[in-house]
Amino acid sequence: MFTKTHLADLTHLDSLVDNPLGSIAIPYVEALNAQHYARYTIERYVNCVIHFGCWLNAESVELQSINQAVIHRYLDDLLLVSSASATSSNSIKMDRAALNHLLTFLPQHYSIITKSPIEAELERFTDYLLNICGMSPQTCVNRCQHVGAFLSHRFCSEAPVFAQISGVDIEAFFQHMALKWRPASLTVVGASLRSYFRFCALQGYPVSALSTFIPKIASWSPATLPKVLSDAQVDAFLKVFDYADPVGMRDYAIARCLLDIGLRGHEVTSLKLDSVDWRNATLTISSNKSKRVQQLPLPVSTGQAIAQYLFKGRPLTSSRILFVRHRAPFDQLLSVSAIRNAMNRAFVRCGLRNQFCNTHVLRSTTATRLQKAGASIKEIADLLRHQSLDTAKTYARVDLERLRAVALPWPGSPS
Q: In this structure, which topology does domain 117-213 adopt according to CATH?
């Protein structure tokens, strides 16, 4: 149990006097310590919270106004200071992490903490997507990110006023997003906004005509085959994992799940110890896009990699999650971004980072290898859990380069 004596070793107690966040310093440290954060990290987080409290006083920001927008203002001020000093970007990242923990921690101690109007609106939209539309949690997160970006672009941090939204606002938003997003991604953003406007219409807001202003993004089906790893590249990719290191064992087992079975990143994060049926060599997937429980065959290579991780690499924990964090906070799920970063680091180590990135290329590689082995489109769609065969047909396109290699010469033409 942390006391003021322990806290005094981390920071100066004088700085807690008249600090609006001073009263939560000890419980904040206790919470971080319970999650097995390193002492150095706790010290940095506490100092950041203290500085944030001083900034709240200087800016006359009340505790009930603390939200993500206020934290962004504080970090923006830090960035202005860091541009004129030797403050590193790593320090800003540390501050952002500390305040994100604080934002989660504060409601446990202050009932006055409120959400911003946009955050409250996104919370209602999330409830609609989950409980009315039956969307998967990851789809809800993606749609809320798109809608949140639109509302922030139009209203900044103010409460949305739907009567003030016009077609010009929608056009300006898509022009802004087009500077950094690809056409396929913009199509997804448009679908998210249409879903949000349907939600608003059900609440009685006059937004039914706004969907007509969402642009139809030109998108052509690619004429080439999906970008995938060759057999030699797959071998090189799998050899770069450190099988003697616990994290290396975990990342290798995750790579096998992505490559052998074609799992999505969020499906890997939700796997539990009970998901593996060792007797029948099956893997149960319950967190997928369709929200249906599905069983997949467990290849020998995948099972061996998981077993090695469980026996030799997985840390002692009461969590039933299969792949757990090896760094603080230990009580949280392994994020999809953590899996993506692990695979990207493997691509760097095997010299393929300039050709491949992220996890979906491994899923595409699974489908293409099945297609080359003679599997039918229906079999590929079943393994990848595609609801439509059209989604899996992309792997059945004709590979013209391979056909040229086996084509017979035209009669009468020089050989």
A: DNA polymerase; domain 1 (1.10.150)
* 395 part of the active site: yes
- Which CATH number is 231-399's, of 1.10.1040.10, 1.10.443.10, 1.10.10.60, 1.10.10.410? 1.10.443.10
- How many Cβ atoms sit within 10 Å of the Cβ of residue 172? 13
- pLDDT of 339 > 90? The answer is yes
Position 58 confidence tier, pLDDT thresholds 50, 70, 90:
confident
Is the model's pLDDT at 2 over the cut of 80? Answer: no
- Residue 34 confidence (pLDDT): 81
Q: What is the pLDDT of residues 118-157, one digit of tens each?
A: 888 999 999 999 989 888 787 898 999 999 999 999 998 7
Give me the catalytic one of 264, 314, 325, 369: 264
Query: For residue 401, which of 219, 223, 221 has the smallest C-alpha distance?
Result: 223
| 289 labelled catalytic | yes
Tally Cβ neighbours within 10 Å of residue 311.
Answer: 9
Concerning whether 264 is annotated as a catalytic residue, the answer is yes
CATH class belonging to 4-108: mainly alpha
Is 397 designated active site?
Answer: no
Distance between CA atoms of residues 193 and 142, nearest Å: 11
Single out the catalytic residue among 6, 115, 272, 289. Answer: 289
